[in-house]
Specification:
The chain is of the alpha+beta class. Helices cover 26% and strands 49% of the residues.
Length: 179
């Protein structure tokens, strides 16, 4: 009886939980190419606004940030977004495109200083999320195959042209001999 009485007198406080996830597919990008990553969230309580900071480091370049259609607000390296739809469970936040310049090596992309707010403006701090990106040299074998294919095609066209010219000259000579 004492336990039940205490539970009735002191209500149970349920703390909201949430998380952020970054997904970049294979987590691999070639030098001077771009990679697209999706940022998604999860929460046990309704979320009406999000604050988060995207960090791509000094060597990578954040080319674009496209927020999901339900969100309004500022969307750059610092996201200050809000919605009237009050999201719960899993939801999309944004898609980012990142470029790896020639001098870049393997790097980490992270989302930090994350705060979810509910419709009553109560904030819940969310743990940072990060993903390692493997930056690789362009595939030399693919470039060699492309170059070899073009060379073969040029050689084939040249051979056809030479045979055609030879045939025309040979037939033209026979026509003059007949007349």
């Amino acid at each position: 009886y004492l336990l039940i009485t205490l539970l009735l007198i002191f209500p149970i406080i349920v703390k909201a939980e949430g998380s952020i996830n970054i997904n970049c597919g294979e987590n691999k990008v070639s030098i001077n190419d771009t990679i697209t990553c999706s940022i998604t969230g999860y929460t046990t309580e309704e979320v009406s606004s999000i604050h988060a900071e995207i960090d791509v480091g000094d060597e990578l370049t954040l080319e674009s940030v496209k927020v999901d259609s339900i969100w309004l607000g500022d969307n750059d390296k610092i996201l200050d977004l809000y919605t009237d739809e009050n999201k719960t469970g899993n939801f999309n936040i944004a898609t980012i495109t990142i470029k790896a310049p020639s001098e870049a090596s393997n790097k980490t992309i992270s989302v930090n200083n994350i705060t979810f707010s509910n419709k009553d403006f109560e904030n819940v701090n969310i743990s940072s999320a990060s993903v390692d990106i493997n930056i690789v040299e362009a595939d030399v074998k693919t470039e060699q195959v492309k170059t070899g294919t073009v060379s073969l095609l040029v050689t084939f066209i040249s051979l056809i042209t030479i045979v055609t010219i030879y045939y025309l000259i040979k037939n033209k000579t026979k026509i003059y001999k007949i007349n």
